[in-house]
From TrEMBL, chain A:
Keywords: Membrane, Transmembrane, Transmembrane helix. It comes from Agrococcus baldri. This is Uncharacterized protein. The chain crosses the membrane at residues 46-72.
From TrEMBL, chain B:
This is Phosphate transporter. The chain crosses the membrane at residues 81-104, 111-132, 138-160, 310-331, 337-356. Pfam families: PHO4. Keywords: Membrane, Phosphate transport, Transmembrane, Transmembrane helix, Transport. It comes from the Bacteria. It is a multi-pass membrane protein. It is found in: Membrane. Residues 391-415 are annotated as: Disordered. Residues 399-415 have a biased composition (Basic residues). Coiled coil: none annotated. Belongs to the inorganic phosphate transporter (PiT) (TC 2.A.20) family. It comes from Agrococcus baldri. Its main location: membrane.
C-alpha cells in the first residue's frame, strides 16, 4: 500500500542525517586539516582533536544507525 | 526431490547474483579513492571486501523489505514461486553483467526488482505486482536518491573547499588521503548493510516457498554468512570497468571531492538501511560524485558519460524485467524441474559469452586509473597507427613500391 506520509518522513530523515553527517564530518575534517597546516601555536593539537572528533562522529553515526532500535527503543 | 533441487538451484543463483552485485558495486565505495591514488587498486578492493563482509551482519531491515511489498505471491504454489524467483534473478544477473561489460554503474537493486516484477507479470499478469509498493519502495526513492546524494555531496565539497582554500594541493592531497580512506571504508560498510540484505531477502522468499521456513521466522545464520561471503568475494574480484567509469569518467575527482562524495554516500546509505528503505547504492554513489563535481568551477563534469548512465538507470527495471519474463515463458515450455535447468543453462551461456567479449578489451587493476581522455598528441598518434593498420590491409605499407626515377626527356630510367 502506498503511504505518502511514511515516504516523506523517510526521505526527510535521509536528507537531514545526510546533511548532518555527510556534509558535517568532511567539514570537521577539513577544519582539522587547516589547523594542522597552520603554524599557530597549539594548532597541531587542535587539528588532532578535530580529526579524532571526526572518527568519533563516524563511529557514533554507525552505532546510532545500526543499533539505534536497541539503544533508544524501536 | 525435484522441489529440493529447484530450491538448491535458486539459492546458488541467488548467491551468484550477490557475487555480481559485489563486483558491480565495488566502484560505489572505492572508485574515488582509486581514482585519486589514495589507495592502490588491489588493497582498495581487499579493504572494501572485508568491510562489506562485516556490514552484511550489521542489519537485516532491508532484507525484510525485499521479501515483501513488491509482488503479490499469495496463493502461488511453492515450485512456481521458486521458478519466478529464479527467473527474476536470471534477469538481474544478465543485466548486471551486461552493464558491467559496458562499464555502466547501473543499480543491482533495480535489476533484482525488475527481474522479479517481470517474472511475476509473466506468471500471474499485471495484478501480481503490488504497484503501490513498487512506487514507494523503488520508483520514488530512485528519483530522490541521486538528488539527495548530489545535494549533500555538493554542500560537503563546497564547505571543505571554502575551509581549505589556503592549503596547497600537495598538502591537501597528503592530508585528505586518510580522510578519503576512512570515508571509503564507511561507504563499504554501508554497502554491506544494504546490498547483501537484498539477496538474503530473496533466499528467504525461496525457502518460505519451499516450506523450509515459516514466513515469520528469523533469518537463518547460514543465509547471512553465505550472502556476506558471496558479496565480499564479488567485491574482491573488483568490477574494474565500472570503477574506471565512476572514478575517471564522470569527473576528474580530487581528494577533497572524493572524501566528501564518500561521506555523503555512506551517511545516506546507512540511514536508509536503518529505515528499511532499499535505496540503490549506485544511484547514491553516482549522485554524490556528480554533486561533488558540480561544487567546483574548475572541474568539468562529463555529461555525455552521465547521460549514458542515466539511460542505463531508466532502462534497468524494464530490461531486467523483460529478461525475467522471457525466462519464465521459456521455462513454461517444460516441467518446473526442467524449466529451472534450462533457465540456469541460458544464464550460464549468456554470462560466458559476455565474459569472453570483455576479454577483447580487458580493464584491470593495471589500467583502471589511466586517463579517461588521452592527450591530443597521443590520440593523434593512435589514430595514425589505426589508419596505417587499415591501409596495410589494402596495400602493404611495410614494403612500399619503389618509385621509378625519370631520366632525361621524361623517359623512365631502369633501376
Amino acid at each position: 500500500m502506498f503511504d505518502l506520509g511514511v515516504l516523506v518522513t523517510a526521505v526527510a530523515s535521509v536528507l537531514g542525517v545526510g546533511l548532518l553527517l555527510g556534509a558535517g564530518i568532511p567539514l570537521v575534517y577539513a577544519l582539522g586539516v587547516r589547523a594542522r597546516e597552520s603554524e599557530r601555536p597549539g594548532s597541531t593539537a587542535v587539528g588532532a582533536l578535530l580529526m579524532t572528533a571526526c572518527v568519533l562522529l563516524a563511529l557514533a553515526g554507525i552505532a546510532v544507525i545500526v543499533f539505534g532500535d536497541a539503544i533508544f527503543g524501536a | 526431490m525435484p522441489e529440493l533441487v529447484i530450491v538448491v538451484i535458486v539459492v546458488v543463483v541467488a548467491l551468484a547474483f550477490d557475487f555480481t552485485n559485489g563486483f558491480h558495486d565495488t566502484a560505489n565505495a572505492m572508485a574515488p579513492s582509486v581514482a585519486t591514488g589514495a589507495l592502490k587498486p588491489k588493497p582498495a578492493v581487499a579493504l572494501s571486501a572485508s568491510l562489506n563482509l562485516v556490514g552484511a551482519f550489521l542489519s537485516i531491515e532491508v532484507a525484510r523489505t525485499v521479501g515483501s511489498g513488491i509482488v503479490d505471491l499469495a496463493g502461488v504454489d511453492g515450485e512456481q514461486l521458486m521458478l519466478i524467483v529464479l527467473c527474476g534473478l536470471t534477469g538481474a544477473i544478465v543485466w548486471n553483467v551486461l552493464t558491467w561489460l559496458f562499464g555502466l554503474p547501473s543499480s543491482s537493486s533495480h535489476a533484482l526488482f525488475g527481474g522479479l516484477i517481470g517474472a511475476t507479470m509473466a506468471a500471474l499478469g499485471v495484478s501480481g505486482v503490488l504497484w503501490g509498493g513498487v512506487s514507494q519502495k523503488i520508483l520514488i526513492p530512485a528519483l530522490f536518491a541521486p538528488v539527495i546524494a548530489g545535494l549533500v555531496a555538493f554542500v560537503g565539497t563546497w564547505l571543505v573547499h571554502r575551509v581549505t582554500r589556503g592549503i596547497g594541493e600537495r598538502a591537501a592531497r597528503r592530508s585528505f588521503r586518510w580522510g578519503q580512506i576512512g570515508a571509503a571504508s564507511l561507504m563499504s560498510l554501508a554497502h554491506g548493510t544494504n546490498d547483501a540484505q537484498k539477496t538474503m531477502g530473496v533466499i528467504f522468499l525461496a525457502l518460505v516457498a519451499h516450506g523450509s521456513l515459516d514466513p515469520d521466522a528469523d533469518m537463518p545464520l547460514w543465509v547471512r554468512i553465505s550472502c556476506a561471503l558471496a558479496i565480499a568475494l564479488g567485491t574482491y574480484t573488483g568490477g574494474w570497468r565500472v570503477i574506471r567509469t565512476l572514478g575517471k569518467g564522470i569527473v576528474d575527482i580530487s581528494p577533497r571531492q572524493g572524501m566528501s562524495a564518500d561521506f555523503s554516500s555512506a551517511s545516506i546509505i546507512l540511514t536508509s538501511s536503518h529505515l528499511g528503505l532499499p535505496l540503490s547504492t549506485t544511484h547514491v554513489a553516482s549522485g554524490s560524485v556528480i554533486g561533488s563535481g558540480l561544487a567546483r568551477d574548475d572541474v568539468k563534469v562529463r555529461w555525455s558519460v552521465a547521460r549514458r548512465m542515466l539511460i542505463a538507470w531508466i532502462i534497468t527495471l524494464p530490461a531486467a524485467g523483460a529478461v525475467g519474463a522471457a525466462c519464465l515463458l521459456i521455462s513454461g515450455l517444460f516441467s518446473h524441474f526442467w524449466g529451472a535447468v534450462v533457465v540456469t543453462t541460458i544464464l550460464l551461456v549468456a554470462c560466458t559469452i559476455m565474459w569472453l567479449r570483455s576479454r577483447l578489451s580487458p580493464i584491470g587493476h593495471h589500467n583502471v586509473t589511466d586517463e579517461w581522455e588521452q592527450p591530443k598528441a597521443e590520440r593523434k598518434r593512435e589514430i595514425d597507427r589505426e589508419l596505417s593498420a587499415v591501409a596495410s590491409g589494402v596495400a602493404s605499407v611495410s614494403r612500399p613500391r619503389k618509385r621509378k626515377k625519370l631520366g632525361r626527356g621524361g623517359r623512365k630510367r631502369e633501376q
